[in-house]
Every structure is written in structure tokens, then in C-alpha cells.
Amino acid sequence: MTGIIDFALSKAKTTIVIAVLVLLAGSYARQEIQVSSSPNIQLPFISVSVFLEGASPEDGSRLIARPLENNLRSVQGVKNISSYSTLSITRMIVEFEIQQDMNEAIIDIQQAIEEVKSELPLGAEDPQIQEYSERSFPAMTISLQGDGSLRQKIYFAEEMKDMLESIDGIYEANLVAAPDEVLEGVIDKSKMEAYGVTLDDLYNSISNNNIVIPGGRQDTGLGSFNVEVPSVLETPRDVYSIPVKVTKDAVVTFGDIATVKRTFKDFNEYARINGKDTVALDIFLRDGANALDTKSSITGVLEDLKKSLPPNLDILITDDETVITEQMVSELEGNILGAIILIMIVVVASMGLRVGLLVGLSIPFCFLFTFIVLVSMGYELNFLVMFGLLLSMGMLIDGSIVVTEYADRKISEGLSRFEAYRLGAKRMFYPILASTGTTLAAFIPLIFWPGYTGQFMKYLPMTVFFVLCASFFYAMIITPVIGTYFGQQKSVLSSKDSVDKTGQIVFDSISEFYSKKIKFFIKNPIFY
User: Fold this and answer.
1) DSSP state of 134
2) Integer Rg of the chain from CA
3) Which of 86, 122, 314, 444 is the most exposed place for a label (fewest CB within 10 A)?
């Protein structure tokens, strides 16, 4: 297996080019990798909701939940089904086994619902299916607050919704506390009685209008054209002109017995900030979207929108999860940078500048190599990945230190840089392989940790695994190749008088003290 070291040394320029390409590709991967505060885990839950206007909780449980539950239990991988019924709404949460493919589960759920849909009550809307993941929860909430009217707030909120949903990283922007606008007709009972209009006449006239009537196609022999029957209400005049009752003497229209005004449906949810009513937008990110880049785009859109807002309205951002992400990335990157500086100080102080830089280069190389692998696997940069990088930082330089120390000793014995580093890499190949393997053996089982917790935690051991594999490659291949070109000309760890002394008082004193203690314990093992 050590023959690969000779091959790498014989193709030294190619090996250096590969190392440079890894650094360049890793830098690009670091810029492109998606950033989030926590791992985006596919939760093993699917929600099925059915709306039936006016249905009591008891009726929803008996007429909707029971037939759906009986059929959904036959779906493969279902672990548990729980249902909740409130006024007009019945919701079921279907829990699956952890190993179940959720894409297949959604298809099976859809098929099971289609089979039982005919048993649901008339008037029940089509069941709504929703899967759960970390992206099922809003990343932030943007609110419009001020002294403006509800109609004004909703108008600008809808405009803001259209602008935000054009951003690539945003999956959806849901309006909150913004009821639908409707036309409300106030009937004058005395006029109804005067004109002899009944409630049936009123209901039939309204229900038979504002519908699309296909007129077909007329063929004249010379050509054909589509026939359109205008019946869609587009203006308030159209509403007032609806014929309610027709007699041989006159036509009673809707405007004769009622007045129409624009209003909103009753509120079913409210949003308030600091005691003031607001209209809000819940922002949902796409899977794999970079939270920080998306926030930057959102900020730009909001700045443009503020220029067109009236002075009585203001935009507020609340529940911003990206703030946590930004703080986490900043703090962990600061910790990693501080650790790198401390490691470089120790290595350079003990091994000299050239050898220290040769060893220290393994840190960015291994980290950037890990970013390449993470991006290719579709993983994002979260706090577990950052913690894995921090955890493995002290371990990844061990192999390079061992190789360079052995090469330094051989240089002190008179060997050339090429022979010293070649011999150092080949001689330390199996010890470093064993050391790396035993460390990986402690983390590999965590990659296969079952359950939801395992899916959440696997980012940490996988990061450590990739970093340590890269460190082994760097120590065995890159270190000897770079060492033959840029390594020390003479030993920096041994003095001219003795290979056991460096010529530096502090390190020689520590080494001499350690050597005496070792000799004492070897001669007197009972004290150990």
C-alpha cells in the first residue's frame, strides 16, 4: 500500500496541482454551501386535513376521521394515527416508521384517500395533505403595522407577498390576519315584502349568476366562432343589476331591495405587535435554501418597498430564525479561527516556520475537502457540522506532525529532503493508518444511529469522518510531496551536538525532565 507514496512523489507536480484544485474547489463549495441553524430533517409525520362547513367535532370524528383512519391504517409503514376534530375542521396526523421513504408514503396516502373519498359527506372539501420538516415552520414573520386601514394594510401586504415570492430561496409567503375581501348585501325586508320577493327568489338569482356558461361554437358555413355568454360579475353595477324577480310589468333587481358594500370576511386569526393590529406574512424557505443569502435578498426587497409605503405604515420583522443562524455561524467561525491561530502558534514555536506552515496547511485543506463532499451530498452547513470541524481540528494535524518529525530526524542524520520525507511517509503509513482507523471506529457507529435522533446527529460523525480521511490523505500524500520542495534544508528539531536536543532551552529542559521520569518508571515499574 505504501507504493502510492512513491507514485505521488514521482508525479509531484501533478500531486501539487491536485492539492491546489482541492483548495480552489473547496473555497467555491464554502461559498455555495447552504447555511441553516439546524439540520433539515424529514420528520416521519404527514398531516391530512378536511374542511366541512358547520360540522361539529362529533360529526367530524364520526363522518370524516373514522372512514379515513380505517383506510389509512392499511398504508405500509404507518406506526400511529391520531385525529383531532374542531368546528368545521378534522385533522389527522399519520406517523410512519423512521426508515420509511416519505416520498413513497405521500403517494400511498393519496391513493388511500382517493379510495375512501366517496364515503365522505357531501360538501366536504378535498383532503389537504402536508408533510413535515424543518422547513415546515416559518423562517421569519414580516408585519405591516401602522394607523392605516385594514384595506390599506392588506393591499400593501399582497404587493409585498408577490415581491417576496419572486426570490429564489422563498417557497411561500402566507398572509396572516388578512381576511378575504367580499361584497356584502344588506337586504331591506320592507322592500322585499313590497315587491313580493321571497328568500327563494333571492337565493336562486344570486346562485344562478357569476358563473361561467360555455356557449359552444357557431358554424355559419363560411367560418366558425366561439359563443360567449357574459355572466361573471365584474363591477358593482353588475351586482345591482341582477334580476331577482321578473313579472310582465317590471323587473325587480337586486339593487331595488338591497344595498351592497365592500367588506371583509370575519376574522379567524389575529396578529398584534406591541398591542397594535398588524397584517403579517409568514416566510417559508425552500429546501436547501441558504438562509443568510435569502435574508439579504428579503432585506433588499423590503428596502425598495419602504420607498412606496405611505408614512402611516411601517414594516417590522419578528421571529427571525436567520438571526440565530447568523450568530451561530459567526461565533463558531470565530472559535475555529481562534483555534487555528493557537494551533499554528504552538506548531510554529515548536517545529519552526517552514515545518509549522507545512503542518498548518492541513487544516484549510481538510476543511475545504470536507465542504466539497458536503456540497456534493446535498448537506447544509449547520451547527453540528461546525462543531464537527471544531472537534476534529486537533486530531487532523497529528499525522502531518508525525511525518514531518520523522523526516526532520532523518535530515539530521544526513538524508536529503526527498529521501527523508519519502522514508517518513512510508515508515509512518501503518501507524497513522491505525491511529486514524481507531479514531474513526468511535464515530462510524454514530452515523448509523437509528431513529429521529440519529438522523439529526449524523452530521457530526460524518463531518469528523470526512475531515479525518482528508487528514490521512494529506499526511501520506501531500505532506511528503510539498516537503520535498519546500521543507527544511536542515533539522529544526535536533541540534548539531545531539539528535535528542533541539538547542532551545525550554524544549530541551522539558524533554530532559520527561526522559528522566520515563527512565525512573521503567526501572521501578511498581511505582507506576
Assistant:
1) G
2) 36
3) 122
Mean pLDDT (the chain, rounded): 82
- Short-list 37, 41, 63, 39, CA closest to 50: 63
Residue that wins the pLDDT comparison between 129 and 525: 129
Predicted local distance difference test score (pLDDT) of residue 466: 94
> Taking a C-beta distance cutoff of 8 angstroms, is the pair 501, 428 a contact?
no
Look at residue 1 and give its three-state secondary structure: coil
Closest CA to 9 of 428, 425, 361: 425
Q: What is the mean pLDDT of residues 146-171?
A: 85
Report yes or no: 213 and 261 within 8 Å, Cβ to Cβ: no
Q: In 10 A of CB 373, how many CB atoms?
A: 18
Which of 224, 490, 210 minimizes the C-alpha distance to 352? 490
- Cα separation, 92 vs 95, in Å, equals 10
Cα atoms found within 13 Å of the Cα of residue 439, Cβ hemisphere only: 23
Asked which of 34-38, 361-365, 395-399, 455-459 is least confident by mean pLDDT, the reply is 34-38
What's the grid cell of residue 239?
351586482
- Cβ atoms 494, 501 nearer than 8 A: yes
Cell of 503: 538547542
**Domains parsed from the chain with CATH numbers:** 3-32+324-494 (1.20.1640.10), 41-134 (3.30.70.1430), 181-212+226-264 (3.30.2090.10)
Taking 70 as the threshold, does the pLDDT of residue 495 lie above it?
A: no
Predicted model pTM: 0.69
